[in-house]
Design goal:
With 292 residues, the chain is of the alpha+beta class. It has 8 helices and 12 strands. The chain is globular, with a radius of gyration of 19 Å. The two termini are 28 Å apart. Bound molecules: coenzyme A.
């Protein structure tokens, strides 16, 4: 049983707890804190702020609000999930997954079927949670989405983001969030399917993974593309290398989305000693499900 509970936050007191938690999750930039009055206005107008509490202390939150997207049939309502943050001392304990699961239930209850949000595609933990565990997919790469960001996690690099689509009434998502959730893919599934990563990471003496010099041609129906397993650590050791990764993956994903590939899965595997992090992209009717 998890040692935390989740509740809907609505009061000004609750919102100031969320302000404080934001400072702990994204240190260093007071102007990037979403203030209590904005959170209150959002929740009075269909927005959702959910908090996770352990021993009466807030350890995580997720915040989103209704939005409109353009479709050929005109504007259509969706839920725009703007921020999720878990206190650094409570990560990797399932709090993020549980908050998104609660959000999934609430948004379905509002009668919506589409949730979107953005994340940095080089963050392996976020990718694993969003794509593999929650079943979001991605076809949209946004360059420098938030301009120059000032907080401690994001400062210094162009704020490129994936915008993911979470189709919350689909079997794909229900299979991941239901009682008997689908096991996530591992390297053995990739190997068994006869697939090979599009490129191999290059290592020099510093043991930091480097992207290839040039983007290989994107030809296969399924692409497996590897990223660093800990991009924030890499960035803190070798900033120039972090920039190389940003620009390499920008070129890669923009080319892939232009060629109609879809990010549909993510592998995070610690089995072979060194953790490995790989996106799976599918084209047309191909899906890795056939290899499960
Ligand atoms: C991203 C974040 C919200 C995830 O919350 P969390 O509570 O740690 O997430 P969960 O524990 O539910 O899931 C994380 C999963 O990633 C796995 N993981 C840990 N390190 C990983 C890595 N380097 N690569 C891939 N997966 C990793 C965990 O093992 C866990 O999977 P498991 O439950 O199957 O073991 C949290 O880490 C956070 O607040 N990060 C900083 C702010 C941020 O990036 N917010 C999101 C954008 S607004």
């Amino acid at each position: 049983m998890p040692s935390f509970n989740i509740r809907l936050l609505e009061s000004p007191e609750d919102m100031s707890l969320v302000e404080d938690l934001q400072r702990a999750v994204w240190p260093g930039s007071e102007t990037d804190v979403v203030p209590a009055h904005m959170l209150i206005t959002a929740v009075h107008n269909g927005g959702l702020v959910l908090g996770a509490f352990s021993e009466e202390k807030i350890i995580g939150f997720v915040f989103g609000f209704p939005g409109l997207e353009s479709t050929p049939d005109g504007p259509r309502a969706k839920h725009c999930s703007h921020m999720m943050g878990i206190h650094p001392s409570h990560r990797d304990s399932g709090v993020g997954f549980a908050l998104k699961r609660a959000q999934w239930q609430m948004v379905r209850h509002q009668g919506l079927d589409h949730v979107t949000w953005t994340y940095d595609p080089l963050l392996s933990r976020n990718a694993y949670l969003n794509i593999a565990k929650l079943g979001a997919v991605c076809t949209t790469y946004r360059r420098a989405e938030y301009g120059e960001m000032r907080d401690g996690l994001n400062a210094g690099l162009p704020s490129d983001r994936f915008q993911v689509d979470w189709w919350i009434n689909t079997r794909r998502v229900e299979r991941r969030l239901g009682k008997r959730s689908r096991p996530t893919l591992k390297l053995t599934h990739i190997a068994r399917s006869g697939l090979h990563p599009l490129y191999s990471l290059q290592y020099r003496t510093d043991d930091l993974p480097r992207p290839p010099e040039h983007l290989p041609p994107l030809e296969d129906r399924l692409l497996v593309v590897e990223i660093p397993d800990d991009f924030l650590a890499l960035k803190s050791i070798d900033f120039a290398l972090a920039r190389d990764w940003r620009f390499f993956t920008r070129e890669l994903f923009e080319a892939a989305f232009a060629a109609s590939y879809i990010v549909t899965d993510f592998v995070f595997d610690r089995a072979e000693g060194k953790p490995r992090s790989l996106y799976v992209l599918t084209h047309g009717e191909s899906t890795l499900e056939q290899f499960e």
